[in-house]
Each structure stands twice: as C-alpha cells, then as structure tokens.
C-alpha cells in the first residue's frame, strides 16, 4: 500500500516537482518550498505565476508578477535568468540545453543556451509555449493558430492554423506531433513533416470542461489529458496519431473532475488528480487503479513523478501538498 508524507504550505501550489531526489513545491506567493528535512523555502518571486522543470530535472524555471524569470536548484539557490520590467509573465517553458522561453502579451522571449535573449513578435497574445524535444524550435499558441519558430535562426514561422483560441501547446516526445488545448473544451493536433506540417488535422473533442493538464507517456505512444470525469488518454502510436481511434478513459468518477495528469517516466501508468483532492494511479494496459491519496482540502493543481518513478509529488489549490511513496 502506498504511503503518503503530507506537506502543508498554506498557499496555492502552482507546481510540484522533483529536483534530483528533492521534492519542491512552488507557491503562488513566490516561495519555493523544499521537502528535504530543513523546512526551508527560497523566495523566488513577488507573486509566482508558473513554473517548468528543465530537461535534466536539475532546476525549476519560474516566472512571476515581478517581470522576472528565475531558476531554483535543489539546494534552494535562486538564479535570475531574465528581467523585463514590472510585467506579469504568465507563460514559461524549459527547453533543450538550458534554453528557456516565456511570454508577455504578444511578445515571446527565448533565452538561448549562451544567454542571448531573442524576441518574437506575434499577432495576438501568446497563451502557451513549448519547445520541440530536439533543437531550438518553439511553438507559440495564440488565437487562430500555433506558430512554430526557430528561435536561434529566426526567419518566417510555420503557421499551424485552426480557428479558435489556442490556450496551451505541447510537442510529442518524438517531435512528430504538435497538440494544442482549445478554449472550447477540445484538443487540436497536427502531424509534422520536415517542412513543418503535412496539414493533417487531429480533432479531439467531447470534453465537458477545458483541458488544462496534458502529459505524454514515456515513449510518446499516449497523451493523457484532464477536463472530464476520467483521464482521457489518446493513442499516438500509429502514423496518423488518434485519427479514427477512440481514447482510453481511466479513473472514471461521477462526483469529481480530473484536473491534473502525469504519466510515469518509464511505465504506461498515469497519475490522476481530481477536483476533490483525490489522487489515483491507473495502468493503461488493463485500466487497473490504485488509490494513492484520499480526497483533500482542495483540487489538485500539479503532479510530478520522481525520476525513478517510485515517488509522486502532488500539490493543491489549498496548499495541502505531499509525496506518495509508491512502494509504501
């Protein structure tokens, strides 16, 4: 039976993560708490808005209401990576080789591995940002399109057009697909070719609520999503992704919505967080479920596996956070 180590931070948890073996919890007030026995926290921002884990699980990249982007290490060290004046930076993403991306209004910024800061102007407000798994290609979600830019080289972007507001974006681990979350309770996807897109659209609908959490399985064969009473998991193993295929529905509950998902780093298992604070793990092969945490004080806001897949960190709107040891 899994065991739970609770950790109350008395604030809205923006992100839970593991930096190496250390669980950390980024709070909306600006503190990043470490569950390492010291009880210490690092002051990262005056109002923290979003966070993204870098590719090596070594730093948590955070942005805030103070117009700054910071990196927090496992020992609590805070490094300022960028500062653009007193503006709310509500989008941030970590990329390959230490690159980071963030956005304010219609302007996206990419900090290259050598520290150079590139600006990218968009026609509409940038609502989501993601890096391709290799290279420095960045996807920017906005109204009516997702734009693909080569951050270092510049040049004309590839426009993946679809009418409506795109509020988030993600690349598949193999870089073959781009999927956006829509304002209208749906996902939209594109299959990419060498030039950017072969114009094959993938429409993933039927959600009763907006999709705010997405997670790819370890080998990229599945994409798990929130926004329904179950975790909706789309198949991407074929050459055309989920086109013509039905998704799996895992952890179905009639009395709560799925609000967070996180795929296991090695196995085809999904951690599922609900609007009442419950956390389950479900296996894709046979839909077998394991209860990891009973309902809590508030909706789950973030889930994160340790690199070895033996522990799961969770955070909530009410700040009742913790770590589940899967082995007990």
**Ends distance:** 5 Å
Let me know the CATH homologous superfamily of the domain at 208-327. Answer: YVTN repeat-like/Quinoprotein amine dehydrogenase
Please report the number of helical segments. 0
Mean pLDDT equals 94
Uncertain spans: none
Which architecture of the domain at 208-327 would the CATH scheme give at its second level?
7 Propeller
Helix-strand makeup class: mainly beta
> Judging from the principal axes of the Cα atoms, what is the shape?
globular
Report strand order across the widest sheet. 14-15-16-17-18-19
How much of the sequence is in beta strands?
over 45%
Radius of gyration equals 19 Å
Helix content: under 10%
CATH class of the domain at 208-327: Mainly Beta
Q: CATH topology of the domain at 208-327, what is it called?
A: Methylamine Dehydrogenase, Chain H
N-to-C SSE string, H for helix and E for strand: EEEEEEEEEEEEEEEEEEEEEEEEEEEEEE
Major beta sheet summary: 6 strands, antiparallel
For the secondary structure, the number of strands is 30
């Amino acid at each position: 039976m899994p065991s739970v180590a609770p950790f109350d931070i008395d604030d809205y948890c923006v992100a839970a993560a593991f930096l190496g073996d250390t669980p950390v919890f980024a709070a909306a007030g600006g503190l990043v708490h470490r569950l390492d026995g010291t009880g210490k926290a690092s002051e990262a921002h005056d109002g923290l808005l979003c966070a993204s884990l870098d590719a090596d699980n070594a730093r948590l990249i955070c942005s805030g209401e103070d117009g700054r982007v910071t990196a927090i290490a496992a020992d609590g060290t805070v490094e300022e990576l960028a500062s653009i004046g007193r503006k709310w930076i509500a989008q941030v993403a970590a990329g390959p080789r230490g690159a980071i991306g963030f956005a304010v209004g219609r302007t996206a910024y990419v900090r290259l591995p050598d520290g150079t800061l590139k600006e990218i102007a968009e026609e509409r407000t940038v609502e989501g940002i993601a890096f391709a798994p290799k290279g420095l290609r960045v996807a920017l979600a906005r109204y009516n399109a997702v734009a693909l830019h080569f951050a270092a080289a510049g040049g004309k972007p590839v426009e993946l057009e679809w009418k409506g507001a795109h509020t988030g974006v993600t690349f598949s681990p193999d870089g073959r697909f781009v999927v956006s979350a829509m304002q209208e309770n749906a996902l939209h996807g594109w299959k990419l070719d060498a030039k950017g897109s072969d114009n094959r659209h993938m429409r993933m609908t039927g959600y009763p609520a907006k999709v705010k959490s997405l997670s790819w399985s370890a080998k990229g064969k599945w994409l798990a999503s929130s926004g329904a009473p179950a975790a909706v998991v789309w198949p991407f193993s074929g050459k055309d992704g989920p086109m013509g295929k039905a998704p799996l529905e895992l952890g179905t509950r009639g009395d709560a919505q799925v609000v967070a998902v996180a795929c296991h780093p090695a196995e085809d298992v999904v951690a599922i967080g609900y609007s009442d604070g419950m956390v389950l793990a479900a296996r894709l092969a046979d839909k077998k479920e394991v209860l990891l945490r009973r309902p809590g004080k508030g909706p789950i806001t973030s889930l994160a596996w340790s690199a070895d897949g033996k522990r799961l960190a969770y955070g909530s709107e009410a700040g009742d956070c913790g770590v589940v040891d899967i082995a007990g």
